[in-house]
Amino acid sequence: MGKGPGLYTDIGKKAKDLLYKDHNSDQKFSITTFSPSGVAITSTGTKKGESLLGDVSLQLKQKNITTDLKVCTDNTVLITATVDEAAPGLKSIFSFRAPDQNSGKVELQYLHEYAGISTSMGLTQNPTVNFSGVMGTNVLAAGADVSFDTKSGNFTKINAGVNFTKDDLIASLTLNDKGDAVNASYYHIVNPLFNTAVGAEVNHKFSTNVNVITVGTQHSLDPLTTVKARVNSAGIANALIQHQWTPMSFFTISGEVDTKAIDKNAKVGLSLALKP
Hints:
The chain is built from 1 helix and 19 strands. By secondary structure, the protein is an all-beta fold. A hairpin with a 3-residue loop joins strand 16 and strand 17. It is globular and about 50 Å long.
């Protein structure tokens, strides 16, 4: 998490990335090119079941300002402008999705050696205001994440969490859904030379008394090829192999099988991301 505690979204992120990142059951292809003026153009196509989705993204970076424009097949356009280091440790983000006139949002993030704060607000007459804050160090940090609906006058989200980092292990505990759910996660680097790591996550929902346990691992077969696998207490097993062609181009094959219903067809996902 760097020199400071990071943002609230960093709590438990390492375990979540190990267990869930890059696993998918879709077919996805993306290619990025650069114009002579330095604009990055990314075209993406995704097949989800019988549906075909696509989008084209443009990104322009000028000094500390990054502008993103994303045109989707659902006839929407997402515009995002990010200003890094407007002041030391401060990042500001403005986003708007056309043609929805109520989709505008502004977000401020501030990182300090002993704190991380993020606040966002919708640009509407009665916006939802979100605030998250973390205090501590890169070893031990605690924070909260809340959302308040100014129209109804109610808190729509109240979460809290704590994160502990020590050498090659990270443990976190979060209380979510206004206290109705608790999540505990663990991430441990077993062999840094081969990027071997293990992770686990336990979710408990008090209202339904349901527990879900997920465990997973990753290992690098060589400097350019990584394998990952996970299984949960419901019997769903996932695995993937990812090969890095160039520093920013990846080919990934992933699969999912229900071990309690082997007769069902396994889900297979393919992803190809090309970037010069």
